[in-house]
Amino acid sequence: MEGEIELIYEIGHISIIIASFLSLLSTGVFAFNLIGKYPFFSTLIKNFSKIGFFFVLISFLILEYAFINSEFSLDLVVNNSHTTKPLIYKISGLWGNHEGSILLWILILSFFTYLIAKSKSIKSSQFHITVLGIQNIILFLFCIFLLFTSNPFSRNIDPPLEGFGLNPLLQDPGLAFHPPMLYIGYVGLSVSFSFAIAILLNKKVEFDWFNYLKPWTLLTWAFLTSGIALGSWWAYYELGWGGWWFWDPVENASLMPWLISTALIHSITVTQKNNQFYNWTILLAIFGFSFSLLGTFIVRSGLLTSVHAFASDPTRGVFILIILALSTLIPLLIYGFKNTHRIDTKYFIFSKETGLLLNNIFLITSTITILIGTLYPLILETITGSKISVGAAYYNATFSPIMIPFIIIMAFAPFLGWTKTPKKSLLRNMLIIFALAFVSSFIIFKFNTTSVFGIICGYLSILLFFSVGFTFFKKLQNLKTLPLNYYGMLVAHLGLAIFLFGVTGEQFFKKESSSQIKINEVIAIGDYSVKLENVKNFKIDNYLSETGLFKITKAENFVGKIKSEQRFYPVEKTKTTEAGIFNFILSDIYITMGEGNLKDGWVVKAYFNPLVKCLWFGAFIMAIGGILSLLSKANRRYI
Amino acid sequence: MNPKSQRLIILFFFLTLLGLSTFLVLKSLEDNIVYFYSPTDINEKILSNEIDLSKRIRIGGLVKENSILKEGKKISFKIHDGIDEILVIYNGILPDLFREEQGIVALGKIENKNFSAIEILAKHDENYMPKEVSDMLKKNGKWKGKLN
Fold first, then answer.
1. What percent of chain A has pLDDT over 70?
2. What is the DSSP string of A449-484?
3. Do the chains contact at A388 and B33, CB–CB below 8 Å?
4. Stretch 240-259 of chain A: residues touching chain B, C-beta under 8 Å
């Protein structure tokens, strides 16, 4: 029996080796195809890609089997699992660590390669071979990375009876799904990358090919959006700091590819429409993947301190850095030499093209400011040795101001026509929504805040609502004929308006207070008062809980009861805070309880977070917009 | 408008934006970066008056055994780096991972040779140790390898 189990892991390990050989063979086919063309090359590379995926899948399933059955003969399972853990966290334990998460990355990458190999929509076999070739090069590099620096199947000779468990902060349903979603987004950018390089490598310019980039970029974008939102939601209720975004390097690492892919979606739209932004779209697709690799590098190298910092191992960092350098520099060289394509079509200043150009300029500028803030501490430490950190204040001073004109242009955009817009109607439409937004934002927010940013942010969210609403209203007569991707655009923009609404409430109208209270004492927060009614101790599954029961009242009227928890995980010797959250429709009251005892009381921190739900709801709506657009006829044809 | 002047306008706009954002970035980097010191560094800098007391800084180290004192919401404790130590005063809820001989990072200012913290972070990796603190301990030769 023992021997059989051991054999299974050998199979898992060998499957990855076979998959990496298949990707190497595909790379070979791609290289030979550059020299001489044979019709069977296309069949060959497609089949290699398809079979490769099944081998990766086998390996993944075997590792998952080891996690579910707590097979402690694998080092990885010992370090990241425990028999008492609930099943869902045994499953998600696989990607709660470095080795497993790289295997998940490879699985998604090879699955996407499989889908491309299966695609019937790609007519040109040369194009098909090139795209698969690039995908397989990336796949090969990651397989090598896994096998040489982070083998998930490394075994220990003397299996212990019990594992070390998974970091309790990660034992959460929100976080079980956060990494896979984010990875689908990151890896999706590799597909846009491969298509862009394939377009670049082809001698003849085929504008039709840009259509293939669109659905993959939309998929990437939708998954990145929901992955980031899920992570932010997790940080909000699990970390107990009462915030939803901390400008942490790892958060920035996911925001940068998101901004680039947002820019890419808009840029492709122009290229599809009238062949403009041809070179720019290719460049963005290249950088999109660079940023997704940079994100992996930041998370995996452990060079930057972060809430999320996982295992740090310099050799891994160096390896990812090499992949990053290769996949940025080589494409840029090809781009520099091959790219002589210029299109001189005319468009006017007041046109959709200009609007989308500005959209891209603002998105790229904001990405660069985040990049500087994220990497500056690293660079300074390397040069001068002094350790610094760049906090939220930096981003508030740089990122936020750039977003103001960005949103204004976004509100403008639906009224602009392709190539040219009659100035009169444009001005009239703009004046109407500017005025409407001005009046309504004052009615809604009342603005008894001193923060100028708060007023601007509130105004912009309302402006965007009106812009989307007005566009929809103008199209009322021909709703049925509107393509689904147009609705997708409107929904995504609406999502951002909802998100900004949430930002305004949470950032500028939030109330907080903290004090040490005994049982039956009260802490006041805005119009509400929160009374500590009781504190109880429990032992549940794999942790001990100290739970505070709170009663919320507003002007003597009962509002509700909630509990806030401190958990102690004996296996991991770690405490976590489970914030108590009382949900109103859009707002919430958020309570965390620190250490304490009957005599001195407990330190309690309470927040009133107005409109906070709009943040994640808005992001969710944005992702829906992306999916709607993906499902439209125009995009579905090219999957 | 001909394409050439159109391109010039766009270029002009882009350069203005680039200049403006560079200015914003540099300005806010200057104002908003926060330096990190070890207890040894900070005591040296206090003695030699090398430190700008009005600026926020971060310090880090291990929480000294038996040094945690609580008076209501006010908490004081010492952190050390194996060579020197400093008293930290803090009002608020301590992070989940706060305990004796645990590596922490505090954000705040120097007041009367003590450190008055506004934020205590026990940000951690899988080995429950902030990177700044482990680097510092390695430098001082006090690194004992992985905790836990």
1. 95
2. ---HHHHHHHHHHHHHHHHHHHHHHHTGGGTTTS-H
3. yes
4. 240
